[in-house]
Amino acid sequence: MSEENSVIIKSSFRNLRKKISELSHLDLVQEFFYAGIGILPFLILYSFLPSSYWEEPYRNIICAIIILSFFMVFIILNQPTSQLKVLKVNYKRNIILFTVCNLAILTFLFFRTDFGYYGLYADNYYRTAYVTQMAYSMYPQDMAIKGYSAFMAPLYWYILALIAVLFHIEPYKMIRIGFLISYYILPILLYEVWKKLVDKKSSFYITAIFFTFIANFNEITWIDHLIGYAFFVPFFIYYFENYKNKDFIKKDYIIAGLLGSLLICTFYLYFILVPIYLMIVFIQSKLKKELYEFKRKLIRISHITIFIILFSLWFWVPLTINIILIGYENHQNLFFPNYALDMPFEAYLKFNLFSIVLILGVIFILMNYSTSKFLNILGNLILSVYILYLLGFVGLLIGFPLVHYRVLVVSHYVILIAFSIFYIKFFQILRESNIIVQFKKKINLKTVEIYIIIIIIFYQNYENTVKLYKSEGYKRSVNEEIPDEVEIFRELDYKDKVFLTQYYEVAAYLPIYLFVVYNTHFSHPSALNNERIKFLKDLSECKSSKEFYDKIMNNKFGPIDYFILEPTNDNETEYLFDTAEIEYYPNRWNVKITFDAELFESSSYFERHKIKEVIIYKTIY
């Protein structure tokens, strides 16, 4: 090796060490590192605990001990008047402790199960099948329908699928692993994001209060939603509103586009608020005769949006091609539960800690709406949410409903941000005021401020924990079992095959394709779910095995490879398919379709198998 090459190699190693050293000093890296170290002793301890410790009353006592222990640690390590540096308030340390506390609770409660909150109930079935299908195919695709792209924002679930493949983990286990990883990453990441907009203290308060009151443990089934709205608000304020008044260069637009695309591809719903927000700002700008500033804002948002669209093409293009070439049925927008009618004001009317925090946040926004740019932005976001809600009610009346009730959480989040700012300013005013001089001599207001927020956080987190382990969802997660039918399907040549079956839950464990998805709202819009069910009804009316076979092989949806249906009688002369739903807003109808056994009688067209008393017909082609 020449001396010149040796010098180049040594210089490269020095630069690499320098980069690693710089990276290790980043707050974000240190926070993740120490939080990871902090949770390790708990995981080791849980592995030695007997199974009985996950049952009452031991489970309840352990959770209480964890919360009380961390409460005491927070109190001890947050002494504003202490001369010892280790005991002074440190928000970087606080976010690490807060993260470890939440993880200690969640990892304990879900340590003895492979399933997420609610097991495979409802949407968790869809999510699990989504991960399973993408882990097999290695690209974002629909959870059940063969040849279709992903239609729900796939990024989070696709990452889980890739992790499952990389570490050889059964995909169905990733729902649980995913939310545990998320509650390790998200609090620290959100804290660092808010630091770009506010100071460390405000950032910690916003993050801790958010994860205490909104992203509490009942949100662990909605991680993609959680990521969407948690980061949409600071992204919107920083980039769309340019709250820091920075001069944007091309690099800023590219970064904003990349980050925005990550949010869009994780859960896109919250971006619906942007045009409504702009309408509000336009009206305000026109009244104030500040249209020039509005035009600049509109241009900036337009440029960022172009980059967002470009970076999101991997998701939108395949979906758009499906819709153009195949067609579209609207099912997602037809979902509106009755309880959504009560939701706009429900949280404010309940007398609890959350309602008090919300009311104080709203009052603070109203008092400062016209004088503070930051609170004006927050206020306009809240208006956007309620205008969308109002449009949704109008849509209900005219038969064109909107999926809008999920955005309500954005208004709660925004109000909690305002409450965090109010809380800090309130104690700042008290410290600067001469009205309570005598009181200030007896007690340190800085101590009162931090102690009250610690008490609020830990009291509410204890309530969240109790609510979690007493819930039906938690019971489902610890009692969920892999259905016996999975082993039956394993004996078949199931890969890349389409099944007509009511054993739809198998799709959560094996990458099988379903001709019809049991829940209309899980169906790809281009799958034309209602048309498929009508086709099945027509298929059931065939008069001969040949006619039946010809229709299976020659239809717009493609062939059905396997029929695994339940006999309606002991003689097995008729088979039932009863998990179909057809949409007629505002109702969904369950459709029972029966197939005469004679339709499968020709051995030229179908192979008959019986595995563990389950009858299977395979289409020959």
Question: Could you explain how this protein is built, in words?
Answer:
With 621 residues, the chain is of the alpha/beta class. Helices cover 60% and strands 7% of the residues. The chain is built from 23 helices and 8 strands. It has a 5-stranded mixed beta sheet, with no helix packed on it. A hairpin with a 2-residue loop joins strand 7 and strand 8. Helix 7 runs antiparallel to helix 8, helix 10 crosses helix 12 (291-311) and helix 11 (273-288) packs across helix 16. The longest helix has 26 residues, at 373-398. The radius of gyration is 28 Å and the shape is globular. It starts with a helix and ends with a strand. The model has no long low-confidence stretch (mean pLDDT 90).
Instruction: State mean pLDDT (0 to 100 scale).
Output: 90
The rounded Rg comes to 28 Å
Taken as a percent bin, the fraction of beta residues is 5-15%
Counted by DSSP, the helix tally is: 23
Largest sheet: 5 strands, mixed
Distance between the termini: 64 Å
> Strands across the major sheet, in which order?
2-1-3-8-7
Structural class: alpha/beta
Task: Identify the overall geometry.
Answer: globular
Keyword list:
621 residues; 5-stranded mixed beta sheet; 7% strand
Write the layout of secondary structure elements.
Elements: H1 3-24, H2 27-48, H3 58-77, H4 91-109, H5 123-137, H6 155-166, H7 174-194, H8 200-213, H9 223-240, H10 250-266, H11 273-288, H12 291-311, H13 313-326, H14 343-349, H15 353-368, H16 373-398, H17 408-432, H18 437-442, H19 445-469, H20 472-479, H21 485-490, E1 498-501, E2 513-514, H22 529-540, H23 545-553, E3 562-564, E4 566-567, E5 574-584, E6 587-596, E7 606-611, E8 614-619
Parallel strand pairs: 1-2, 1-3
Antiparallel strand pairs: 3-8, 4-5, 5-6, 7-8
Helix pairs in contact: 2-4, 2-7, 3-4, 3-19, 4-7, 4-8, 5-6, 7-8, 7-9, 8-17, 8-19, 9-10, 10-12, 11-12, 11-16, 15-17, 16-17
